[in-house]
Structure formats: C-alpha cells, structure tokens
Design brief:
- The protein is mostly helical and 212 residues long.
- The protein has a domain at 150-198.
- Helices cover 92% and strands 0% of the residues.
- It is built from four helices and no strands.
- The longest helix is centred in the middle third of the chain and has 146 residues, at 2-147.
- The radius of gyration is 71 Å and the shape is elongated.
- The chain crosses the membrane at residues 172-193.
Length: 212
C-alpha cells in the first residue's frame, strides 16, 4: 500500500512543479525585454543629449555671430551718422565758402583779363628795350674788339670784307687809296720790268748803265 501511495503523491505533485517552471521560463523573456527597452531609452537619451549639446554649440556660435554683426552694424550706423554730420557741416559752411572763393577768383580773372592787353604792351616795350640794349652792348663789344685789332688786320678787313665796323665813307676812302696804291705799285713794277727787259735785250749790265 505504501508502495502504491508514493507514486500517487508524486503524480499529485508533478503538475505543480511543471507550473512553477513554466512561470519561471515566462518571466525570463519579460526581464530581457525590459532591459532592452531601458537600453533603447538610454540610447535615445544619449542621442537627444548629443543633439542638445550640438544645438547649444550652434546657438552659441550663432549668438556670437549675431553679436559681431550687431557690433558691425552699430559701427556702420555710427560711421553713417558721422558722415551725415560732416556732409551737413560741409553743406552749411564749406560749400558757401567755396562758392565765395570761386566768385572772388572769377572777379580776379575778369580783372586780369581787362589788364592783360596793357600788360602785353608793357612786356612788348620791355622786350624792345632789352633787344636794343643787347644790340648796343654787342656793338660796344665789337667796337672794343675792333680797337684792339692791329692796324694791318683792320685795313685788310676793311678792304677785302664787308664786316668791318666802320662807316661806308671810310670803307670807300680806304678802298680808293688801296686801289690807287695798288695801281702805282703795278705801274712801278711795269716800268721796272720793262727796263729790265730792255737792258737784257741790249746786253747791258745794270751797274755799267748806271755809271754811264
């Protein structure tokens, strides 16, 4: 009887053990799924955190760029304001001053245009006086050079050239005297030559003829 009872108890306890093992097996997949969900959530959190950091970096860079652009715009605005002030100052003071100066210059040019013919006449007169003085100085220099020239060279210049600084009357007189002297010399030479030819023909010696 005892031998038969033991198997009955074993058969009675066997379904309970199988149920517990089934619950244990079913609890294992549920735990692994929770871990996977936690891992995925942590991955997404890390990804979001990295995206947030990248976004913060971009925002900081954009903020610095916007500040730089704002500073540049302020400088440009200040420069434009200064330029506007300068242009306003130029319009109120410089332009009228330039206008007055141009008007005065035009009046001065008009006066100079009216005085220009008279100035031209004065310059022409001064040029004539200068030319006359230069010619007179050249004449004086030529006269001094002529006075320092030896007399034979003076006579040769008067007789054979027309550059002698003497009057035409003196040129005619000296050339006439030179012509007369030249003719006399030629006449004397002709007489001498004629006598020599005659003496040679008569075979007479000059000394004997003179003694006779």
């Amino acid at each position: 009887m005892d031998y038969l009872a033991v198997p009955t108890d074993e058969r009675a306890t066997t379904p309970t053990a199988s149920i517990d093992s089934a619950e244990t097996i079913s609890s294992i997949p549920s735990t692994s799924g929770l871990d996977a969900a936690l891992a995925a959530a942590s991955q997404r959190a890390l990804s979001y955190e990295m995206q947030i950091k990248d976004l913060e970096g971009k925002l900081a860079e954009d903020l610095s760029n916007s500040r730089a652009i704002d500073n540049l715009l302020r400088e440009v605005v200040q420069g434009l304001q200064q330029t506007q002030k300068r242009s306003s100052t130029a319009l109120t003071s410089t332009v009228p001053y330039i206008d007055r100066t141009l008007q005065e210059d035009l009046e001065t040019l008009h006066d100079l245009g009216n005085a220009l013919p008279e100035i031209g006449m004065q310059v022409k007169h001064i040029r004539q006086v200068y030319d006359h003085g230069r010619d007179k100085a050249q004449e004086l220099v030529d006269s001094l050079e002529w006075l320092n020239t030896p007399i034979p060279l003076r006579l040769r210049t008067i007789i054979f050239t027309s550059n002698a600084p003497v009057s035409a009357r003196w040129k005619v007189l000296i050339r006439f005297l030179f012509t007369l002297a030249f003719l006399m010399c030629m006449w004397i030479a002709w007489i001498t030559l004629r006598g020599a030819v005659r003496a040679h023909r008569q075979r007479l010696v000059w000394g004997e003829r003179l003694m006779s």
